[in-house]
Amino acid sequence: MYTRSEWRLIVHGEAGGATNMAIDEAILGAVAGGRSLPTLRLYAWAPPCLSLGRNQPLSDIDLEACRAAGADVVRRPTGGRAILHTDELTYSVALPASDPRAAADVMEGYRRLSEGLLAGLRRLGVDAGPAGQGCRRQGETGPACFEVPSTHEITAGGRKVAGSAQWRGRGGVLQHGSLPVRGDLGRIADLLALPQAERETLRQAVRSRGITLEEALGRAVPLAEAAAALAAGFAEALTLTLVQGDLTRAELARAAELRAGRYASLGSAHTS
Question: What is the pTM of this model?
Answer without folding.
Answer: 0.91
